[in-house]
Amino acid sequence: MKATLIQMDIKWADSAANQKAAEQAIHNAPKSDIYILPEMWSTGFATHPENIAESDGKSLAWMIKMSKELDAAVCGSIAVYENEHFYNRFYFVTPDNEPQHYDKRHLFTYGNEHHSYTAGDKRVIATWRGVRFLLQICYDLRFPCFSRNNNDYDAIIYVASWPESRIHVWHTLLCARAIENQCYVIGVNRIGIDLTCKYNGSSEAYDAYGRIMVSCDDNRATAMTFDIDLEKQDSFRKKFPVLNDRD
Length: 247
What we know:
Nitrilase/N-carbamoyl-D-aminoacid amidohydrolase; six-stranded mixed β-sheet; Amidohydrolase
């Protein structure tokens, strides 16, 4: 399976411009099975989502359209208003099935995300073309118990708005999650500046050995593609069965 990381700048609260930028980046990338966008890719990370979060499904509709056109999965998180609640919702869209979603479990209290958003309570694994993806959002990366591999997934996707000031933590924890869970880990971060933070990207993917498969340049909108090889990963897990000894 080919996976493409879409590292992009995000214009504040301008879903039309961000859809256009994402579409251009996807079309300029190699043909893939899955395209991964950052956290709140359609608006920027909004801790005060009033008048910003989507209730009309416009960005989700765009993801569905792109998925069908590309015959590929398209995923990333969107600020959503539904049933009088705000959610930081990670949509996983495929051409043939209803979209799956994961609502961010660990809200970023340091940035007051918990004051406006409702936390999710379900762990979500989406399967696409034989690969099982655990869906996670940004701050979830700091909580390894929640993402512990129970032999129920092959890869973790973290979509993020992770600031430049803490980027060392980003690199370290992505690698750690890959090693401890014997899986691929894909981290897709944004670039640019919003109302409070500067972002320098550093999107990357690791294999089960903790080796970097692909890494995006800092501070540049770009797309990078790599191969997910489940046969190789399964062979490593059988040879060195760490997961059998997990707590």
